[in-house]
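Z., the sequence and structure:
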Amino acid sequence: MSHNLLKGKRGIIFGALDNKSIAWKIAEKAYNEGAIFTLSNTPVALRFGEINRLSQHCNAEIIPADATSTKDLEHVFIRSMEILGGKVNFVLHSIGMSLNMRKQRDYDDVDYDYFQKTIDISALSFHKMLQIAKKLDAIEEWGSVLALSYIAAQRTLVGYNDMADAKALLESIARSFGYIYGREKHVRINTISQSPTRTTAGSGIKGIDGLLDFTERMSPLGNATADECADFSIVLFSDLSRKVTMQNIYHDGGFSSMAMSLKAMTQYNKCLDEDNNL
């Protein structure tokens, strides 16, 4: 069901790869809610992903870009304004990559060249995006910018490696830039800390099955799905959230406020009983 929450809105969605990705779901929801937008991802992702299908479905032009390149990002904003007929009202940053995780390097044995790439791709790209948008005056007053984060920015999560540092920086950028952009242009900037989600990238996290089971047992409302995250993102893009900015908002079924749930404790006690019976 459409509520036309984004009717007349223009946007840019960075990071849609395939139909498992949250950015893909957000694009579909934005289209259904009346928005027009462009899509952007790296040339490599465009070759290996399915974004052409999304482009056709949403009637959205694809603008290839390396999000670490200021020149490429500048082109995305300028070209998007040309295609869409004016400044944009919303921007999604759904970009993250860690070679240390892919190579299964432990946090106390990371490759520092990989580490720098993680920070540049997953966090500094957000700052570059915002700085370029502001200099170009590419976002309409009361526009909304979102970036996708994760609770590992605040709490240690085994296996999440240098991506945890990148997410912490991502959230800091949202606060620091949110103050400046809000003060000068009334543009709001927020991050969403989503439940662990079985996206193409998320599936590569070591121990993802156990993590999903644990957070499902811990969360009173259960894990938030990619579709549910997309619904929430649409609200944050819409005029219904005009005074929400500089926030890291947990969209995780209540997991972030829990210490121990009944389901998790029950499972833990079963494991103890099994150990004692060995």
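The chain has one domain: 10-276. The longest strand covers residues 139-149.

Let me know what you think.
H.
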